[in-house]
Amino acid sequence: MKVIGLTGPSGAGKTLAAEIFAAFGVPTIDADAVYHDILARGDDCTKELAAAFGREILDKNGLVSRRALANTVFGKPDTPTLLHTLNTITHKYVMSDIKKMLSSMAAAGISAVLLDAPLLFEANAQTLCDVVIALLAPYSQRLSRIIERDGIDEAAAAKRLAAGKDDAFYRSRCGYILENDGNKAALTDKIKKLLMETGVVVV
After folding, report:
1. What's the DSSP call for residue 58?
2. Most CB within 10 Å of its CB: which of 65, 102, 118, 144?
3. Rounded to two decimals, what is the model's pTM?
4. Amino acid 76: pLDDT
């Protein structure tokens, strides 16, 4: 089974790209969705996060409130340190679940899968991939997408972007770069070409 890693900065349009890959017969493992499922379980990961960031990140049901956690981590003088702590705790749980999912998909005879992981390199998940792609987009479009997607204001969205890696980080590490200017047809053509180049059968 060929594993295609998809990464890139927040708001670049990875969800749209994953939909296009799915239309070509390549299913997706969404690392963010895996993370959200882990938080919803309220198990050991939740306990570690509460110990690190305080019980104020928990909701009335004792589960992690992603908004409260984000408010604790982003836009602070020590945001880089806080992000490192957050990632150190969460990545091991996410990676464990992703490995189990990949094993199940390979056993089911799936020929290719897309691993959509914004923090692909931070989690060392590139080691699971045969091909690594970065999806990049203009700053203004990324800002607009985050505001709409997360229901936050421009200042909060700008903090999210400021906490992330710049384009050069992805360009220097990824085997393929896809530029997304918001034109779905153009992005579809780019993805189809990439799949053909990497030997994935396009349906």
Report:
1. B
2. 118
3. 0.89
4. 87
